[in-house]
Structures are given as C-alpha cells and as structure tokens.
Amino acid sequence: MAQAQFQAETSARGEFVRQANRFTGRVTAESGSAPGEGPDEQDRWPLEAGRYRLIWSRACPWAHRAVIVRGLLGLEDAISLGTVDPIRDDRGWRFTLDPGGRDPVLGIEFLAEAYLSTDPGFQGRVTVPALVDTVTGRVVTNDYPQLTLDFSTDWAPLHTKHPHLLPADLRPEMDALMREVYEDVNNGVYRCGFATSQEAYDEAYGRLFARLDALEQRLRRQRYLFGDHVTEADVRLFTTLVRFDAVYHNHFKCNRNKLAEMPELWRYARDLFQLPGFGDTVDFDHIKQHYYGTHPQLNPSGIIPAGPDLSAWIS
C-alpha cells in the first residue's frame, strides 16, 4: 500500500476519508446574543455587517465556492476577505501574501492560530474556508457545505443582489443532486488522488466518471443543472470542473478523459466561467502551485507543470 498524504484521513482499506468539519457555528439574525457578543447556547452568532472575515485560498475548491456565493449575493461589504498563500507548509495555511506576513485584520500569521484560539486542543488539519469573528478572533465555522447555504438564507437581510441560488421549489431535488455530486465528483477527485490502494482508487475512479457521464447527459437538455438559472448546485460543480484539466486529470489520476473532451460539461463550465463572479475569481497559478507544491507523496519533485493551455476558457 502506498504512503498516505493524510495518514489520519486514510482508512485501513486505503480510502481517503475526509475529516469532519470541527467548527459548525452559524451567523443568524435568530441568535440570542446581542451585537458584539459571542454565540448563544446554540452556537448561533449575531448577524452583523463587517464583523466576520472569510479566509480562503484561491486554490481550494471548497473555499472558492464560498467566495463565488458571497459575490453573487453582494455580500462583499458585509463579509471581509482574507487570502492565504497557495503553498501550505507543515504549520498549515499562512498569510505570507500580506505585508509582514500577517492578516491585516486578524493580526495572525497562520490560520491555525485562530483554530487554536477557538479550540486549544485541536489536532486536525486546518482547512479553508473559515469564517472568523474579528471581535474575538475565534473561528465561527469551517463547515463549508452549510456556509454557502447560510449565505443565501441567514444572511439575507444583508444581501445587495438577489440571484435566488436556492429556489424553494427545487430544494429537495437540488439537495439530492448536490449530495451525489459531492460524494462522486467534488470529493471523488480527492478519493482518487489520495487513495493508497488500487481497490480504493478503482472504486472512486469508477464513481467519478459514472457521475460525470450522468451530468453530461443531463446538460444535453438544459443550460445549467436546473434549467436556465444559476443555482448553488452549479457553483458547487463549477469549482471542481474548473480545476479538472489543470490538476485533477494528471495529479489525481482522473485521466479517463479531460473535461475539454466532454462536450456538454465543457460547454457548461466555460459558460459559467464567463459570468461575473465565476471566472474572475479563478486563479490557475495559485491552483497549480498549491496542488503540485503541497502534496509531496504525489509529486515529490515539487515541479509545477507549465500547462495546460488555459486560453480556451475565454476564447
């Protein structure tokens, strides 16, 4: 069996088993806490414009989806944004892009500092996105699936744009599809890339391309996943697709074919890329630097590939 990239997240069978999200607080107008206070007894933080800071990596698909939704809903002034370096060392995500190597709002050098301030006993992998309270320096949540849903619902009083990313009449079908896409595609590429046994890799690979084939068929009859209107489901799929040919195809051995060789998915991904909030939040340099530069078990040389030619996204 191959050496695991993340030993604590690898099963005895060689499967990558993603760690649970440690912090699951929520920002909502329903919080029992007054402005400026911490969470209530149900871990609900008060809704306040300008109080919370979203920490992301331009490389990370989970964080990318949060930034896209933040922008689509017009929450940029309500939620500030901090960006970490694409290269994550053994101390985790770092703020070396900022002057002095510190986040200018939180005053910390590593995101791990906010994690440990919130839970001094935390020993897991520090992840983005993380929504951090600027008053206490504590992490409110790193629960990326719930975070974007909350942006559409609990943060509604602060929206300046109203794209209806979660239509009520579609929620049951959307939730089911987003769950399938997460299991087989969003997390599926990682289950391929971080598998340490042939059996685990083969299973993940089969599920990934079976789901992509099903999505290819679905998109033959409509522009987006749920018709002619962009929804949360499209955001979640896009952030994986936009990284597919640049990193997942080669680095994670998802190489049955490239995204560019699946006509409907390629058309769909390029369509989304042209929309405000999608392509303008993609940074292929950061994406490649991170994946090829921080997974030594997969790429021991650390060499970052020059390709692919990314001009097709905008042509």
UniProtKB/TrEMBL annotation:
SUPFAM superfamilies linked? GST C-terminal domain-like, Thioredoxin-like
Q: Name one Pfam family in it.
A: GST_N_2
This protein's source sits in the domain of life called Bacteria
Which residue ranges traverse the bilayer?
none
Limits of the GST C-terminal domain: 167-294
What residue ranges carry the coiled-coil annotation? none
Q: Which PROSITE patterns match?
A: GST_CTER (PS50405)
Q: Which PANTHER family match?
A: GLUTATHIONE S-TRANSFERASE OMEGA-LIKE 1-RELATED, GLUTATHIONYL-HYDROQUINONE REDUCTASE
Q: What is the designated name of this protein?
A: Glutathione S-transferase C-terminal domain-containing protein
The organism of origin for this protein:
Dactylosporangium salmoneum
